[in-house]
Amino acid sequence: MKSEKIMDLSEAIRRFVKPGDHISIGGFTLNRNPMAAVYEIIRQGIDGLHLYAHSNGQGVDELIGAGCVSRLEIAYGGTGRFAPTCIRFKKAAQEGLLAVEDYSNYQMTLRFMAGAMGVPFLPTRSGLGTDLIEKWGFSPETRAADPRLPNDKLKVMDNPFGNWGDVPRVVLVPAINPDVTIIHVQKSGPKGTSRIEGLPFSDVEQAKSARHLIVTCEKIVETDDLRDAPESNQIPFFCVDAVVEAPHGAYPTACYRHYDYDPVYLNDYRKYASDDALYADYLQRFIRGVKDHAGLIGLIGQERIKAIAADPRTGYATGLDRK
Amino acid sequence: MKSEKIMDLSEAIRRFVKPGDHISIGGFTLNRNPMAAVYEIIRQGIDGLHLYAHSNGQGVDELIGAGCVSRLEIAYGGTGRFAPTCIRFKKAAQEGLLAVEDYSNYQMTLRFMAGAMGVPFLPTRSGLGTDLIEKWGFSPETRAADPRLPNDKLKVMDNPFGNWGDVPRVVLVPAINPDVTIIHVQKSGPKGTSRIEGLPFSDVEQAKSARHLIVTCEKIVETDDLRDAPESNQIPFFCVDAVVEAPHGAYPTACYRHYDYDPVYLNDYRKYASDDALYADYLQRFIRGVKDHAGLIGLIGQERIKAIAADPRTGYATGLDRK
Amino acid sequence: MADYTLRELMTIVAAREIRDGDIVFCGTGISMVAAMAAKHISAPNSVIFFETGAIDSKLEEVPMAVADPRVMFHTSVNGSLADAFATMQNRFTGKKVVGVMGAAQIDPYGNLNSTVIGDYRQPRVRFSGSGGACDVASFVSRTIIFMQHEKRKFVQKLDYMTSPGWLDGPGARGRAGLSDDSGPAAVITNMAVMRFDSHTKRMYLEGCYPGISKEKIVENTGFEVDASHAEEVAPPTEAELRILRERCDPQGLILG
Amino acid sequence: MADYTLRELMTIVAAREIRDGDIVFCGTGISMVAAMAAKHISAPNSVIFFETGAIDSKLEEVPMAVADPRVMFHTSVNGSLADAFATMQNRFTGKKVVGVMGAAQIDPYGNLNSTVIGDYRQPRVRFSGSGGACDVASFVSRTIIFMQHEKRKFVQKLDYMTSPGWLDGPGARGRAGLSDDSGPAAVITNMAVMRFDSHTKRMYLEGCYPGISKEKIVENTGFEVDASHAEEVAPPTEAELRILRERCDPQGLILG
């Protein structure tokens, strides 16, 4: 299969992710984060990133932990039971190493959706009366200095149609158009048509809102394999800039119908992340010390990789020890 | 299979469609219109309907032709090459028998989407500077008299985030919440989980915006048949009030992977629709004169029904004579 | 009487709040097990629904996050986040939804903080943030809140209001633009069940867990609370416990 | 020279407007065949895209409507209407889209009427209405317009403005809230190709079809039009005609 969009991950990250970029990543907590790409960003030492996240979880925490992120817009920094609050995120926020601005999951989703739709904002009732509206994470100076940030976090407006829809007032949340979005999917065609299996989260909106889109996938397949069931594809090829085959590209997070999250990795990560020295060691050993994602998977070893292989019936690793 | 939502079409229409209701139907021009339901509405003589349509085509024209519709909000009244402008719609509008208010396809889609999302409006740039904004079809008195209509057709507003998104100004289109939406799908489960194959058009937004939802389907299948691939389902069961098995329920419009549109019917329809006497005869013979949709299909006969059967490879009737 | 743990009691107390036909939005952990239990006990037609978009998952194993692949199996629809929150904000489906949630702080009106302790931009303690909590609390007909009963968590004034409860009292939700008919219904703690007065919208003590005195609860509540009508909460039955242990969390991942 | 029909000429003239890499939004009929032809002639990497949501359909047979099941076969994505229009309104993908459309009336600035003749509420003639035309004309980088060249169709003032062209001249789109960089690029009629002056935004005559005089075109245009620079339009080549007849519309459903 040939296509000028197919490239290896290091090239895709080098071409499309620059220091200081506004980026967003797909996935949710411990599922389908584009971890191969996250680790490659860490390996390339790209920093000063402005990261847009809803509840992206593991990928967010690792980018923050490795010092790649200087500003974060987020709804939720957690990885389920493995880290009810992401540890490096918590630490960075408490130590003032990270400027954080809070939204809700739906607000962030709507902001990506607005970006994808090409409208400057979308309305919701979420957050009326709360500090999500009152308290802003970024100062007016920060906003003014970066034309990629709106001057206002959000706006509350009376419903111009009176009480139409039984809604007297709405919050308008501004569109996000990241410089680059990175998502990990199950299958892509050579030109980028992509298929997500299981829950899509907000990946599709994130993908379509971005100026550039990198798609990593478990497998690049023939176009016909995807076009035989186009209702199952979500990303049209013309939205995609780079297609990267990255097997286990979401590891240690899950990829539905391919593999589960790795509870061993996530438990170890919690331990490492809780201590600065251990964390530096973790980064050196697992991320910076390997050439690429295949190197990490090799380090983990076949036994653990086999243990998380998805059961074809359920799509996850049935009976996996997850304590 | 048992479920209190499964009922025959005459019961579903009797229970959920009342004279004067605000209704919307799914499909697009000559595809997947809920024709069995449209014909049943005609048979039951339900009138005074306020119909919301984007480009729903055949179903809209037949409801208008049979005198069921008194007000119409619409983007496009046509059925492709068979009727670039729907004939009974054109006639009714020109004779002043029908109050019409025009929107664009995207505006109507956004209005259903707003209704589905539970927000009073959504923004777009579509229509700025045009008569879609300047000219309203319904008078302020009509609007004031029906609480189910907003006082304003739409609103133009300066972007409250400055020029954010390179958009200085937007049109806000008000949400639609029909009393009832009727869609026709390929498959439903006993409680209403539904799957649309091929293009979904705006059916999902229309379905979710409605107070009541009737789903007619080619076949009611076991829940497990749908839940084995939940990414392919669009309508959650809790949105559905009535599930009706209606084979060929979109006929004479198409139903992807089941049957094509019937060019003979649509050509004949054009001929009948162009003449009041012929049209009265058509209604009597094909619609009111048969007991139900199976009666109409019987009248059409196996030969024509076979001719439009979908080729499993393409999803339509390959090589069908469509002149 | 059956032997049970505190977490089991809390789960069953929450499960009893769920009515048949409810669409239950729940998060991870104990709230998910409560929703699972309710389906087996009193609300067979309730629907578990995750903010990640999974509707009516067949939960053969306990998910450890709302994005756990276990929630994606055998659902009615695997929708998007946008779909999930629209279902809650929708005028028709939203009325059927009950939300189950937790927080780091709660105030007398059931407003919640899950964002920071201390200054917002220089937090002393940073928590996960809203996630879908603010959305749920803004949209759905009623919410059930899990809390640890500690003075520093039941506070007169939140450090940050992440999710709206009854705001500052009667009519406040309506004035803010939310619905006056929706809001927090119950707070389930490790000591008690609290509810909100229908007139004042302030929290009061409805039920004490077996063996816990009113005084202890009042003492652990950082604001004044009416305890005058409190009764003892009925403990879980053996049948309820069996369902929890055998059908909801046999691996003890959440309750163990 | 090859023998060709007027409809074939119009189709080829339109196909030539499509550039490689364009995302072509087209409607039913001749515009669809033009887009199909362009893929075979000069723009192999152009993408046909229907407002119904079908992206890059494999058109083994000519669809007779944009919702024809033939557009659903072997696409990249079978999206919704919402997806399709968002692609056009999107800041990045919208810039790559060219729209091909028709209308009942056009004015000197390329504004279009496809709604009514006469009073809006009491129309003398009712047409189909906008469909996606207004959306396309509002959003995409450039539009190509098919028209019958008649005085009553090329009018100084539209009865109803369904789709925005250059509105009332330079800067008007920007003032209305649309993009000043996007708008109608060419009008392809049964006699000529018209374009819009880059300064005044008014329509002028660029090319006459073989055998049609400037005078005849001016006579059939209901407003003043600059014809001073018009040249003859190159007729379709044999290769172009073969593609049309053999690969685009072999049944003659549109061009026959």
What does the average pLDDT of chain C come to?
95
- Beta-strand residue fraction of chain C: 15-25%
Classify the oligomer: heterotetramer
Biggest interface pair, counts: A-C, 75 and 64 residues
Strand-pairing-aware structural class of chain C: alpha/beta
Report the end-to-end length of chain C measured between terminal Cα atoms. Answer: 20 Å
- At CATH level 3, the topology of chain C is Glutaconate Coenzyme A-transferase
Describe the structure.
The complex is a heterotetramer, with 2 copies of chain A (about 325 residues) and 2 copies of chain C (about 260 residues). Chain A is α/β, with parallel strands linked by helices and about 325 residues long. Chain A is about 35% helix and about 15% strand. In chain A, helix 3 packs across helix 4 and helix 10 packs across helix 11 (about 275-290). With about 260 residues, chain C is α/β, with parallel strands linked by helices. Chain C has a single domain, classed as Glutaconate Coenzyme A-transferase, CATH 3.40.1080. Chain C has 7 helices and 12 strands. Chain C has helices at about 5-15, 30-40, 80-90, 135-140, 170-175, 215-220, 240-250, and strands at about 25, 45-50, 95-100, 105, 110-115, 115-120, 125, 140-145, 185-190, 190-195, 205-210, 230. An 8-stranded mixed sheet of chain C has the order 2-1-3-8-9-10-11-12, sandwiched between helices. In chain C, strands 4-5 form a two-stranded antiparallel ribbon. In chain C, strands 6-7 form a two-stranded antiparallel sheet. The longest helix of chain C is centred in the first third of the chain and has 12 residues, at about 5-15. The interface between A and C is large, with 75 and 64 residues.
